[in-house]
Design goal:
Blueprint: H1 2-15, H2 20-31, H3 35-54, H4 60-63, H5 67-92, H6 106-118, H7 121-135, H8 141-162, H9 173-196
Length: 197
Amino acid sequence: MQTALAGFGLGLSLILAIGAQNAFVLRQGLVRSHVFAVCLTCALSDALLIAAGVAGFGTLTQAVPGLEWGMRLFGAAFLLWYGLRSLIAAWRGGETLRAEGSTQSLRAALLTCLALTWLNPHVYLDTVVLLGAVAAHYDDRLAFALGAMTASFVFFFTLGYGARGLSPVLARPGAWRVLDVLIGLLMLVIAGSLLLG
């Protein structure tokens, strides 16, 4: 039980910071668009990556020297595109929070979610490399992995469904513009840190 709690604590601490994936989940929760599917996709993706890390996949980045840099380039390019898209949406304005309907199809939402997850090098560094390295220090690596996976499920579903509490604040177009600007700038900062880091 103590090992599972250690995995839960570390897993939760790694995904608490608002990043590209979390910002997308938050936005989907705010517009109440495909929230369950998006949260489940994020949590299952994390679970797969955690399992790979605990199983020893973290050594692959050391075995293939250019892999990490390639992941950084792909991730930065995608985040630049997504950030610019958010800034353009803020500039155009006119968006308000609608409780009904969705801003994009389920397919488009899931593809965006998968791209923000699987093209983000930080996800690999956190879930595969770091969690994999820490798990190696525990005798019961399965319990550690299950704890980290549970943290991911708890976080994403709390973020997705908890976002509804912000609905009254974001019922005004001006608030959406601020949110889109913040998300866009965050994506650009993360993309820059990938290229410079």
